Amino acid sequence: MSALRRFGYGCVGVVALFGLAARGSPVFAEALVKFMSAAPHAQVEVRSDPIQGYLTKRKGAGPFPAVVLLHSCLGLPAARRSMADTFAGWGYVALFVDDFTTRGVKETCAVDFNEALPDAYGALAFLSRLPYVDPARIAAVGFSQGADTALKIASSRPPSSGSVNDPAFKAAAAFYPPCDNVANSRLQIPTLILVGAMDDVTPAADCERLAERQAGGVVKLVVYPRARHGFDNPEFGDGARRLGMWLAYDRGAAQQSTAELRDFLAARLAR
Fold first, then answer.
1. Which domains does the chain have, with CATH numbers?
2. What is the pLDDT of residues 100-121, one digit of tens each?
């Protein structure tokens, strides 16, 4: 059973990205796109329907670096558009993966959702084929259940056709992930982990143990002293009980994590 289920994980997803989400009319072009999961059917039961996502592109011919955004067990956040615009404003093509709609799924908070990992690799393959994306500069950024997927990406090898040109994620960032799910894994790519010290849904101690086991320079762990699960989500205000979990917004941690992510991506996806 996953750490998400053991901790009663059930509802958390970012509703607003950090404190710097774009406001007002969108500046960047967004398109609904469809692509296939990258999972072999022998490994994961995946419907034959294409997966869909929302692609946000900055102006220009590129090639640009890109990010694959991975949602929580509740699906796409309400503020997904402003989140994607923020990344586009930083200079990235952003693809927000929607694991649920084509499968008719509403939420996956009480089950292990194995399809999330191959969906992320399907998004990677889709982005890698776009003429305005640099396939060597793509990162995964996940939140809660999506952060679980981001850590699995960081600790696993992608599905391969045997070609040296197969796309691969260059970096991964995980907001309050269940680090215990990959407790014995070796992270293979640069990884940023952001978690609250008072998070009792996905405890920071699990991430500290994971980081201690990694080779030097592979992982950067940032623990925010008074922050709880969902610390970057203003919807939770000073605190809210959701499905037995205490969730709270922390403006300071939200702003600091934004800066950490921006700097991490800039360094790891640089030419």
1. 3-268 (3.40.50.1820)
2. 888 899 888 778 888 899 999 9
